[in-house]
Amino acid sequence: MDKDSDSTVTSLDENTENFCTNPTRDILADGITNLFKPTIEKLDERVATTIQLQSELRGQLDALAAQLRDIEKAQQQIPEFAEKVKELLNVKHKVTIINNVLSSSQERLTNLHKLIEKEQQRRQALLDSALSTNIS
């Protein structure tokens, strides 16, 4: 029973208190946040711009479709406008799909680029350590 009283394990409250007031952890967290912040902001700006442009394009396609419907109503003898309106709506749908594909492709490329950089750093570290070992 004396061994239990000699335990060096600290209580959960002490560990939690030390973890919450650890200035090194806070500095590291701020550094990591500041490291990724410019890239995330640029990506957010680009995504916002793309979304805005897609919205404008969608609005223009809607306006064009409405104009074609008005022309079709004014001139009942030209039935092929109905098909053109359907084609425009299909194009609008395809533009939306392409935008989604481009967004996910960009995310994948960004992740791939990060993995490539990580692998290059790992190989450079191995090369540096091998060279330093051979020099010594």
Topology:
Blueprint: H1 2-5, H2 12-20, H3 23-74, H4 80-135
Short description:
By secondary structure, this protein is mostly helical. It contains 4 helices and no strands.
Number of strands: 0
Q: What series of H and E elements makes up the topology?
A: HHHH
Number of contiguous helices: 4
Task: Please bin the fraction of helical residues.
Answer: over 70%
The overall pLDDT, averaged over residues, is 78
| Category from helices, strands and their pairing | mainly alpha
| Estimated radius of gyration | 30 Å
Low-confidence stretches: 9-16
Distance between the termini: 53 Å
When the domains are counted, the total is 2
Q: What can be said about the biggest beta sheet?
A: none
What is the 3D form? elongated
Report the portion of residues in β strands: under 5%
Structure description:
It contains 4 helices and no strands. It is an all-alpha fold and 136 residues long. It has 2 domains: 23-78; 79-135. The chain is elongated, with a radius of gyration of 30 Å. It starts with a helix and ends with a helix. Mean pLDDT is 78; it is low at 9-16.
Which key phrases capture this entry?
136 residues, mainly alpha, SNAPIN protein homolog
